[in-house]
Amino acid sequence: MIIPAFDLINGTTVRLYQGNYSNQKKYDINLYKRLKDYEIKGVKNIHLVDLDGAKNIKKRQIRIFKDIISYTDIPIQIGGGIRNEEDINMFLNLGVKKIVIGSSAIKNRVEVKKWIKIYGSNTIILALDVIIKNNKKEIAINGWQEQTNTTLEEIIEYFSPMGLKHVLCTDISKDGTLSGPNNVLYKEIVKKFKHIEFQASGGVATLKDIVSLKETGVSSVIIGRSLLENKFTIQEALKCWQNE
């Protein structure tokens, strides 16, 4: 499916260039109006990121997310600094449908294994963001500021016995660039991990990019900047996905 994404800082929709907080672009949009329009058009899922919470859990935008969730009937998945069961329960109680776990999947693996078991494989999404060098898909964490020695494949294989089902995979070099997605990456991991429903993120600029991603076999495409900058409409994106 097509999943529109909104990254929020202090309630304002922004896009970071390759995850860099100092290189951000603000968008003067009415998020509530846009969500209502997306609901009418048939969008089935929304991706929200709490960039404030990702940086400092004391600055979580709880009130804003509560308002958003109460305003729309579109199922919402949310990420950004979610590090413990208290965080997960808080968002689920607000009405969030899926929880996106990033850095904790690397730094706190035993706990995350437990969360998949407790909350179910349909609730927990692992966000695995990679820097690719010599075809090695190395995961970066903590807002992409810290590289690890762990590969994408290692983490998927580690969590798969617990029933891991959803993985949001971003090629960091593509994020926020409108330079086109890394189709080679997605073809490779979809072929290798047939039990995983991959969400592709990063680089989508045209409707042709959506077509090419559908052909890789990913389950969903997360689209941020290109929708915010009206490179195409949500109707065109949805029709393009459905027609492939």
TrEMBL record:
> What is the native source organism of this protein?
Buchnera aphidicola subsp. Rhopalosiphum padi
Q: Which gene encodes it?
A: hisA
Q: Which UniProt keywords apply?
A: Amino-acid biosynthesis, Cytoplasm, Histidine biosynthesis, Isomerase
Which pathway is this protein engaged in? Amino-acid biosynthesis; L-histidine biosynthesis; L-histidine from 5-phospho-alpha-D-ribose 1-diphosphate: step 4/9
Presence of the UniProt keyword Cytoplasm in the record? yes
Pfam family of this protein, just one?
His_biosynth
* Example of a GO biological process term: L-histidine biosynthetic process
Q: Which residues form the active site?
A: D7 (proton acceptor), D129 (proton donor)
Task: Note the PANTHER family from the entry.
Answer: 1-(5-PHOSPHORIBOSYL)-5-[(5-PHOSPHORIBOSYLAMINO)METHYLIDENEAMINO] IMIDAZOLE-4-CARBOXAMIDE ISOMERASE (PTHR43090:SF2)
Domain of life, source organism:
Bacteria
Which EC numbers characterise this protein's activity in its record? 5.3.1.16
Q: Where in the cell is it found?
A: Cytoplasm
Primary location class: cytoplasm
The protein's name is 1-(5-phosphoribosyl)-5-[(5-phosphoribosylamino)methylideneamino] imidazole-4-carboxamide isomerase
Similarity section:
Belongs to the HisA/HisF family.
**Which Gene Ontology cellular-component terms appear in the entry?**
cytoplasm
